[in-house]
Predict the structure of Rieske 2Fe-2S domain-containing protein.
Amino acid sequence: MPTPPADALAIVDSRPLQEPGDACHFAYTDTSGRAGRGVLMRVDDHTLVAFDDHCPHWGVPLGEDPSRLFDPRDASVVCAMHGARFDPRSGLCHTGLCEGQHLTRFQIREGPTAGLVIVKRSGLF
Ligand code: FES
C-alpha cells in the first residue's frame, strides 16, 4: 500500500467492496497523533462513504465486524451496541438513542491507482 499524502488519513483498497453494505475498517493517526479507526463502506454502485468508527451515543466503535454494519432493509448503518441507525450518506442518526447526532464523515477521493481511495478528514457536517 502506498504511503498516504500528508493531508490524508489513510489510503484504503476499495476493490473488495463490491456490493451495497460491503465495508472494511482502516486505521489512521490524526494530526494530534491520536490513533483511530475508520470505516469505508459501499452504498451503491457509484458511491463509497467513509466515517469514523465511533458511535455518537457512547463513543464506542460501531461494531467489530464491518460486514454487519449495514442493514439493507432501510439502507442504514447500525450500531451494534444499542442499535442506533444512521443514514450512511449524511451520517445522521435517524432512529435510536443518539437521534439527531451524526457520525463523523471523512472526505474521500480517488487514490494513486485504480481501486485505491484516499481518506481525508472533513470534520462534522
Ligand atoms: S453506543 Fe451506539 S447506539 Fe449506543
Observations:
- The mean pLDDT is 91.
- The beta strands are 10-13, 23-29, 35-44, 47-52, 70-71, 76-78, 85-86, 93-95, 105-110, 116-121.
